[in-house]
Every structure is written in structure tokens, then in C-alpha cells.
Design a protein that fits this description.
The protein is of the alpha+beta class and about 425 residues long. It is built from eleven helices and 16 strands. Helix 1 crosses helix 2 and helix 2 crosses helix 5.
Length: about 425
């Protein structure tokens, strides 16, 4: 069972992520995780997988192509969750499918990142992840929170970077966007739109991901040709389709075929789930959850000979999850009056104003290139407007001893000019 979770995690990483925990422009070697964290990593992976299926269930209602990085989103939100308290913390844990207590969850994410970094350090496969927290110059985080995220999500002092959102929000936005562009090898541009960052922005938590892997058995470009592709509506279109005969893990039942195509190095792979009926994807999506997916992956056989026909595809997706995540149960985090992120700064003045995600994937004869970036934008809650007390009509007044409450004087003003 654990191997199944590792296999799915590798798939998620291979088609969505970049994980080499950059500090500035230099690589920082992550410290090896503890044995306890390594043992907890499969539980963290199961949580990511369950969250992935839940989120997919909400996003797939919109027709058309769809691509996102569950790992990237989960990592950015896990860093945010580290500062949540009370009901906000409970809602985030439930929505994000965190299966471990906070003291075990964050080291488990460290273990996942460390393992992915090792998997990506193979010939023919590049996998890297970058995290950064962009903090308003005038705002301070709790030392305990800063230490936690540094230990588990980044290694070095530059994980937390200063930004001047209050006076130069546009410049700060451009700096963050340039950082994302650099970490994703120019694949994710303009993650933060101009209206996302403003004077009330206090903190932006970012995760950027890039993957480039060559197939273990590459497709021959000379065999690629236009073949019919049946759309959901019944229309058939020509699509450039690659072909290869490969030894690969495979399974099928009456409804679905499952194929795993490995990348060079053997640690990372793409898994394709193909409904047997041309119009069967909608029905399959309705049954998809973490447990069902795990069962599907558990049926993969030892490598067997498979004649593969796979269309080339390239897509970019973008999501703003400000409505999706509350609909999934994370309501308080987006409510300026209810959010409790006191674990970050020792006070309850922060809330999530935006969760933004962009993803890119290109699948061709040589392999796969994919990138994604996530940003959690946190604003300071606007202070409640002052109450209006306009004494422009007759009133009573009193003078009292505030210690005992005794009234010393009592009066009424009917006409202040009398």
C-alpha cells in the first residue's frame, strides 16, 4: 500500500512540480529528515492525494482541459496552516486532508521534499521546488513560526524575504513574479495580477515548481501522425498522436485502463487513466476520490508489453481558489473577522485574501516538461470603521467613579447654548 502512495506521489511530482528549495539564486542542501518524519511521509502523501481528488472534483465542473499541482498548492497552504489556530486551523486541516498532527505534519513535508529532491537528481530528469515567504517590512512574525517554516520548508535565512507592500506594492508584485518566472524556467509568468497585491498585503507565501523528464522509452517522432480523437460531445478531430511499444506497468477492468510510463531514472512516472468508453470520463470523474484512486493504482501489474498511442499535448491552466477552498470547508481563513493566524504573528489581524495557482505542461515524444506556482496572499484585516456619535440633540451626561461605579454628577443637555 505504501508503495502505491509513493508511486502516485511520484506521478504528481513528475507532472507538476519543481523541488530544490532555492535560497536566493543558490541551492541549499536540505538536512536529512528524521526517521520519524520518513515514516510519516506516506501519511502526508495520502493527504495530498485526497486533497488532489477533492479539488479536482470542484474544478472539473468547468469544461475543457485542466491541469494543476496538488503538491504545490498543498505545500503553500501547509506553510500557511502552520500559523493557523483554533477553528481556522481545524477547517484547514479538514479541507486540506492533513492526516497528521502539526508537530508531525511539517517534518513529514520536509521528508517528502527531501525524497523528491533525491528522485529528481537523476540523469535525464530534473525536479526542483522553491519556497519563499514575502513579508511586509513593518510586520513581524513570531520567532517560533519563522523557525518552523525554515526547518521544514526552506533551508537558510532568505526563506523569509522583506517586501515593501505598504508603499511599493507594485514593485513588490513584480519582484515576486520575476522570482516565480526564474524558478519555473520561464514557464509561469505573471502569477500575481496587479489587483492582488495592495497596501493591506502583509505576507505572500509562494511555492514554485519545475520538472523536466525524458521518457525511459522515448516515442519515435517518425511514428507520430494525426489520428482521430473523439471529443465528449461526439465530434471527432485529428490529433498528433505518438506511438511506442513499451514494457510498462498496466492494468484494466471493465471500465478503465491504467498505464504507468516511467521517466529516466525510474523514480518518476506518468500515470494515465483511460475510460474504455469514449464518453466515459464524466462518469469516472464522479467516482474519483483518494481511496478509489489508490485502489486503481494498486492494480498496476509488473511491467508488460503495451502498444501505446498517446496524443501530444501542451496546456496552461490558471485558478483563483478564493471561492473553491471556502466551498470545500475552509471558510474562516478567508474571513477577515473570523480568521485566526495568531500562530504567525501573535495576533488575529491576518486573513487569506487570495490563493492563486498557475500550471504548465508539455508532453511530447522526448518526455515531459511541467511547471507550477502557487501563492497564498495574506492581508491585514481592515480596522472596523469608527462608530459615529453625533451629539446634535438633547442628551444626558454623568460623571462617575470608574472604580466603584458611583455616580458623582448627572445631568441633561437640552440646549448647549442656553
Amino acid at each position: 500500500m505504501k508503495q502505491t502512495f509513493r508511486t502516485f506521489l511520484r506521478w504528481l511530482a513528475s507532472i507538476s512540480a519543481s523541488l530544490s528549495l532555492f535560497i536566493g539564486c543558490a541551492h541549499a542542501e536540505p538536512q536529512p529528515p528524521s526517521e520519524a518524519a520518513i515514516k510519516d511521509a506516506p501519511a502526508a502523501a495520502r493527504g495530498i492525494n485526497a486533497f488532489a481528488c477533492d479539488l479536482y472534483g470542484h474544478l472539473c465542473a468547468k469544461p475543457g482541459n485542466l491541469f494543476f499541482s496538488p503538491y504545490s498548492l498543498s505545500t503553500a497552504l501547509a506553510m500557511t496552516y502552520a500559523g493557523a489556530r483554533g477553528q481556522t486551523e481545524a477547517q484547514m486541516a479538514k479541507t486540506l486532508r492533513f492526516m497528521l498532527t502539526p508537530d508531525r505534519l511539517h517534518p513529514a513535508y520536509h521528508a517528502l521534499a527531501y525524497g523528491l529532491a533525491q528522485s529528481g537528481d537523476k540523469k535525464g530528469c530534473v525536479l526542483s521546488i522553491a519556497n519563499a515567504l514575502w513579508l511586509e517590512n513593518t510586520y513581524a512574525l513570531q520567532p517560533s513560526y519563522t523557525e518552523l517554516v525554515k526547518q521544514n520548508y526552506g533551508f537558510g535565512e532568505d526563506l523569509v524575504r522583506k517586501a515593501n507592500f505598504a508603499e511599493q506594492s507594485e514593485q513588490a508584485r513584480l519582484i515576486i513574479n520575476r522570482w516565480v518566472l526564474q524558478q519555473t524556467r520561464d514557464k509561469i509568468a505573471d502569477l500575481l495580477a496587479p489587483d492582488v497585491v495592495g497596501r493591506e498585503t502583509v505576507l505572500i507565501l509562494t511555492n514554485a515548481i519545475h520538472f523536466k523528464g525524458a521518457w525511459m522509452t522515448q516515442f519515435d517522432k517518425d511514428r507520430t501522425q494525426d489520428l482521430p480523437f473523439k471529443l465528449d460531445g461526439g465530434e471527432t478531430i485529428p490529433a498528433p498522436t505518438m506511438r511506442v511499444t513499451v514494457e510498462a506497468p498496466y492494468s484494466e477492468d471493465e471500465a478503465v485502463q491504467v498505464l504507468q510510463l516511467p521517466y529516466k531514472g525510474g523514480d518518476l512516472a506518468m500515470v494515465i487513466l483511460l475510460p474504455k468508453a469514449a464518453g466515459g470520463l464524466d462518469a469516472f470523474e464522479r467516482t474519483l476520490d483518494g481511496a478509489t484512486l489508490d485502489k486503481r493504482l494498486a492494480t498496476l501489474s509488473a511491467p508488460m508489453k503495451v502498444d501505446v498511442f498517446l496524443p501530444k499535448f501542451r496546456m496552461t491552466s490558471e485558478f483563483v481558489l478564493n471561492k473553491t477552498l471556502p466551498a470545500m470547508g475552509m471558510t474562516d481563513a478567508f474571513n477577515s473577522s473570523a480568521a485566526d493566524f495568531s500562530g504567525m504573528a501573535g495576533r488575529k489581524d491576518l486573513f487569506i485574501s487570495n490563493v492563486i495557482h498557475k500550471a504548465f505542461v508539455d508532453v511530447n515524444e522526448e518526455g515531459t516538461e511541467a511547471a507550477a506556482a502557487s501563492a497564498v496572499v495574506m492581508d491585514r484585516g481592515m480596522p472596523a470603521p469608527p462608530a459615529v456619535f453625533r451629539a446634535d440633540h438633547p442628551f444626558l451626561f454623568l460623571i462617575r467613579d470608574t472604580r466603584s461605579g458611583a455616580l458623582l454628577f448627572l445631568g441633561r443637555v437640552s440646549n448647549p447654548k442656553a
